[in-house]
Amino acid sequence: MQKYQDLHTLLDKSPAAKSFFNTLPDYVRESICQRADHVNSMASLKDYAQNLLRGDG
């Protein structure tokens, strides 16, 4: 699994991650952006998004 420096690099380098991120509700994207340094792979992006969507934030 490819890991990147942070969320911004992940979204810049991975079209699949950017596409997934863009489908998320605004509040989920905002929360993920607040933790950008901790989201560095597609797996971490999906895990964090699923937690937020379940309300585990």
TrEMBL record:
Source organism, top-level taxon: Bacteria
Protein's UniProt name: Uncharacterized protein
